[in-house]
């Protein structure tokens, strides 16, 4: 089976163009560079501690509540929710990177950064740590949602998974594409010659 980071590889422009009702649920990968972090949002949220839920919890005074589990959550986790602008040669878009994926990129657990908030210059320190990922080339796995179709991609996508760029794998993929083009033009030439009157 093809390496997951190469599956259904598209460029950003192709992804925006494929946003129609039939593409809901389609999973594709794209390789893009992070060029900006949107700092208008808190980089983490308080999340449900139940495995498999991790939804945002509501602060109701003396405790937190998860609407998804219908349960009180005594001490919620801090979970990343990073909004970044990414671009490739064709297009730029917003992407949200959650939880473990963001942690893998930043190499700092969310709880660690969250503890910095109260320290002196904490917010600036957190921003600086997050901004370190600017300029990183990443392979993003995106799953097209109904929401993406409605907003036609303007509100951005969610990164379901991220992969470090494997240059060896990637060059192999390019090689394969070149071979396919050569093959196709060979077939075209053969057909063309077969139909040319002599
Ligand atoms: Zn929950």
TrEMBL record:
It holds the Pfam family Rep_fac-A_C. Residues 29-172 form the Replication factor A C-terminal domain. Keywords: DNA-binding, Metal-binding, Zinc, Zinc-finger. Gene3D superfamilies: Nucleic acid-binding proteins (2.40.50.140). The keyword DNA repair does not apply. InterPro entries: Euk_RPA1_DBD_C, NA-bd_OB-fold, Rep_factor-A_C. It comes from the Eukaryota. GO terms for molecular function: DNA binding; zinc ion binding. PANTHER family: OS03G0429900 PROTEIN (PTHR47165:SF4). Belongs to the replication factor A protein 1 family. This is Replication factor A C-terminal domain-containing protein. The lineage of its organism: Eukaryota, Viridiplantae, Streptophyta, Embryophyta, Tracheophyta.
